[in-house]
Every structure is written in structure tokens, then in C-alpha cells.
Design goal:
The protein has 155 residues and is of the alpha/beta class. Helix content is 30%, strand content 14%.
Length: 155
């Protein structure tokens, strides 16, 4: 157990996100997503897990993961088939976690389901949750920690 680090962030997930750099993509996905197959195609080479639902996993990740401010869309949701503009509750809840982590409203972009799968294969890593609600799948683009950012342990 580490101080100030969310206990849901296991050693494998911490290693992956610490290894990422600016512009790398992380996929946070539900339990129906083909995480093992897609994870084998990512830079990290295997799927990772967080044992929580998608909103709680997003909160844990975003406590350490800076979203990219240099792009128009740094957080993306998978669109619902047939109703791409509908925002299901799981996506609304993750939106709340993004806004909380960023301290302001940070709009989610959207991506068609099969385009999302293709983009996921090009990501740095895939983190699968135990989320059972459909469309609990998101892409987060890694940003930077600015030189003037106050970090734990700074004087």
C-alpha cells in the first residue's frame, strides 16, 4: 500500500502509466471489450485490469494521468451503435470523473465502435474494468506535467 496513490492502481497499471509519454493513448474498457486480443496488439503487449466499475477506475487513473491539453480531443467515448449521440449513464458518470480530475468541464469526444477498436490496437495499453454496462469504453490521451506543477514531495 502506498500513500496518496489510489489502491485500485495495481503495480502493473502503475508501471504502464509511468512508462507512457505525451500523446500516448490509454484505453479504459468494459468487461465485454476484447481486451486480451486488442491488448496483445498494443505497445504494452498485454491487457491490464482494474477491479472496479468504469467510473471508479477512471477516477483512480485520472488521479495520476494528465489529459493532453495540446489536442482538441483528449478523452473519447465509444459511440452506441444505432444511436451515436446518446450518452448512456456509464459515460455520463465517467464524464463526471473527468471533470472532477481536471477541475473543469472537459467534453468527451466520440468514436464509432469499429473505429474505436482499430484505434485501441494502436494505443499504448488497454485497461479492462469489471464494468458490465454496455459502452463503458474510453480513450484517454496522455498529456504532460508542467515544470511549475506542484508534486508530492516538492518543497
Amino acid at each position: 500500500m502506498l500513500k496518496s496513490i489510489d489502491p485500485l492502481l495495481n503495480a502493473d497499471v502503475l508501471h504502464a502509466i509511468a512508462s507512457m509519454g505525451h500523446g500516448n493513448d490509454l484505453i479504459l474498457c468494459d468487461s465485454n471489450f476484447p481486451a486480451d486480443a486488442v491488448g496483445r496488439m498494443t505497445t504494452y503487449g498485454r491487457a491490464l485490469r482494474i477491479d472496479a466499475n468504469a467510473p471508479r477506475a477512471a477516477r483512480a487513473l485520472l488521479s495520476l494521468f494528465p489529459l493532453d491539453t495540446f489536442v482538441d480531443v483528449a478523452a473519447v467515448r465509444m459511440e452506441m451503435v444505432g444511436t451515436p449521440n446518446e450518452i448512456p449513464p456509464v459515460q455520463q458518470e465517467v464524464q463526471t470523473e473527468i471533470d472532477r480530475a481536471e477541475g473543469r468541464h472537459w467534453p468527451l469526444g466520440s468514436m464509432e465502435r469499429f473505429a474505436f477498436y482499430e484505434q485501441a490496437k494502436k494505443s499504448y495499453c488497454v485497461v479492462q474494468t469489471r464494468e458490465r454496462r454496455f459502452y463503458g469504453c474510453f480513450l484517454f490521451k496522455m498529456g504532460v506535467v508542467t515544470p511549475d506543477a506542484k508534486l508530492p514531495g516538492d518543497a
